[in-house]
Records
---
Amino acid sequence: MKRILLVVGAKGMLGRVLMGILHSSFSKDEIIGWDIEEMDIQKEDESVAKIEKLGPEIVIHIAAYTDVDGCELDKEKAFAVNAEGTKHVALAASKCRAKMVYLSTDYVFDGEKGEPYLESDSPHPLNVYGHSKLKGEQYVQEWVKDSLIIRTQWLYGPFGKNFVASILQQAREKSALSIVNDQIGSPTYSADLAKAISELIQFDARGIFHVTNSDLCTWYTFGKAILELSGVNRVRVLPISSKVLGRPAARPSYSVLNCQKLKKEIGLTMRPWSEALKDYLSTYRQPLS
Ligand SMILES: NC(=O)c1ccc[n+]([C@@H]2O[C@H](COP(=O)([O-])OP(=O)(O)OC[C@H]3O[C@@H](n4cnc5c(N)ncnc54)[C@H](OP(=O)(O)O)[C@@H]3O)[C@@H](O)[C@H]2O)c1
């Protein structure tokens, strides 16, 4: 019999890519994708009733309010979507006895550790987005028996607003770009993450897993690599500090995630971010000059 896999947040940056990967990896199953037009996860009764009626065996919850600075300015919305919204999806998953997969973030950590974070490290978010996503993790663990929490970071890909698209857009308009050089992480290609999510589900993995492309860099190094690989050499890139940029939400200075558990438990090694970026740019972007 066909199983139903439900993706909540199917029209976002990761969702669009994930839907394609799931369709090919789970071709014998039915893949349903919903976003805010189909179901607003802030509405408890409607969300629970709608998911219960569908009766999925697996619920992959990737819907979120992902504007990190927006969350800082609108704490109520951040918690309504990322925490309470996740609770509603978790409640529905538990009623259906479904497995629940939840996407979380490196921003649950404060960056003080100074070396890559393990799944077992204690979270301590610096910003509202991180707090609201952590609360979401806690609801999933509290309500769903069979859950998989995947923490990732610095996503980019062919859909939606992201750093790669923003750098390429700015390079068309400006002769110099200032990029922060005091935050360290691992840029992650949405297609690589989507494949890893699919493999983790096929493996029936449970608990928390960290999943990012490997190797690390700062946003400044990442920005320079984007321009170089796109053939842009007329734009100057200047390193600045987060303080100078002055964004509303604080970010951890070092939020690299240790992905060894992924390798140990399911034998999956993520490729370096520079390789993934090259692949992405050669597939989706025409060189700019
Ligand atoms: N992007 C990153 O760098 C990053 C890093 C770490 C973790 N993550 C996590 O990975 C997941 C996917 O991220 P993403 O970058 O693909 O996010 P995204 O592009 O912002 O997509 C999220 C989707 O959720 C939808 N949504 C927002 N509020 C909703 C609501 N109340 N009910 C139903 N749907 C709602 C959004 O619709 P609208 O666009 O109409 O609001 C959007 O289609 C998220 O859980 C995020 O927290 C992302």
Note: Residues 89 and 190 are 23 Å apart (CA to CA).
---
Amino acid sequence: MRVLVIGCTHAGTAAVKNMKKLHPDAEVIVYERNDNVSFLSCGIALHVGGVVKQADDLFYSSPEELKKLGVTMKMKHEVLDIDTDAKKVQVRDIESDMIMEDSFDKLVMATGSSPIIPPITGVGLQNIQLAKNYHQAKEIIQKAEKATNIAVIGAGYIGVELVEAFEAYGKHVTFIEGADRVLNKYLDTQFTEIVEQELSEHGVKLALNETVEQFVGDAEGRVQKVITSEATYEADLVLLCVGFKPQTDLLKGKLDMLPNGALIVNDYMQTSHPDIYGAGDSCAVFYNPAKTHAYIPLATNAVRMGTLVAQNIAGPKIKYRGTQGTSGLKLYDLNMASTGITEANAFFFGLNVKTITIDEAYRPDFMPTAENVKLKLVYEAETLRLVGAQILSKVDLTQAMNTLSACIQQNMTIEDLAFVDFFFQPHYNQPWNYLNKAALQALEQERDVAVLV
Ligand SMILES: Cc1cc2nc3c(=O)[nH]c(=O)nc-3n(C[C@H](O)[C@H](O)[C@H](O)COP(=O)(O)OP(=O)(O)OC[C@H]3O[C@@H](n4cnc5c(N)ncnc54)[C@H](O)[C@@H]3O)c2cc1C
């Protein structure tokens, strides 16, 4: 079996490592246009903030390690074309500029995503940076050293992490977002207003509800100002964090995709071509809360899907379980995480939801400290099925969202959750764990409705 893998960051690395374990006789060839594998972009902000001292520490594998496993590593090779009928690819060796052809029995699309560059006047100016790969990370570090005013555009979790890191580095930071809230895909207003307050208290200038209209440069072509719909901000470094798009142009019009180009794969990671598999940011995921395909680019999805490609490459073996898009974030001394759908976004998935929020001490008051935990459950109004949850506390209780992710994956209702057996120990929680308690309150809420009806 000759398997070509295009792209080798998280999905590709997981696929080839497992493939060599499960199918040692398979001929596995990787084409990667970059000069490295397995870079953890999630460490960029930690590097900027000084937590991770060396960008080189942000790799967990290398071309050499994969070669030792028996994988043929074609680094700095870019795949230019895929003939899905003839099962052939055209590849360019970036260093020699030579074009060659290769053929496959199975092909793995692990081509990932690229940051979206919005078509704004002046976007090509120097010091307007993207934050995705190793080389971009190094450029950011180098340019941040000399920068005084930094504008971060896009208030998703990547933007928030970078803002905190630049602020901690002593820079003046302006945080620009077109929507009226930060983190609006992950958290509802009760949570995002706390995050916004925390950012403001640390001196970050929040520019919400503002759309960037133009970047203005100096005589040397370096960015100097950002002009939004509301104001003009000084900026000698700009970070664009406005989202990602799947890199699947090679298969446009040839295979089934979402409108944004994300490949649709079945339970065994096969695309609409049975010999072409997909994994990671190049693909849509099956989003369990909404029971539909969605684009949720996360490393967690990438490593799971890459591993499943290897399991299923020689025939269906292990089924993919879908995702809840669970994610966590630490901002100063706030720990937050979310899973599934928020109340605000339920509408976009055609879901009619109800919610319950509790805000109380996570453990008994007799303990030396007992911080509050704010926990919100989102459930389907008709079925009481849990579809989302959010948590925020000064104590790290983020793992609770992994517990609820499992509950959503298993289609549990708030009644199921109310009576799950969770331990009690005063160091960690109350006799009724906060997850049980929120679900019990949701049930109470439903009972009230029933009584009223
Ligand atoms: C700043 C930042 C922070 C993040 N933090 C988190 C986090 O905390 N948790 C989390 O779960 N996720 C996080 N993510 C998301 C995560 O990084 C991505 O989901 C993950 O990188 C996807 O992995 P992938 O292998 O599918 O694709 P990618 O990482 O996009 O890699 C695709 C690879 O394919 C190669 N390639 C593409 N086209 C070709 C071609 N034609 N020929 C040859 N090679 C090609 C590219 O060079 C690249 O190496 C973060 C992302 C960023 C940018």
Note: Residues 6-7, 9-12, 31-34, 41-42, 44, 78-79, 110-113, 131-132, 158, 247, 280-281, 297-300, 302 surround flavin-adenine dinucleotide (CB under 6 Å).
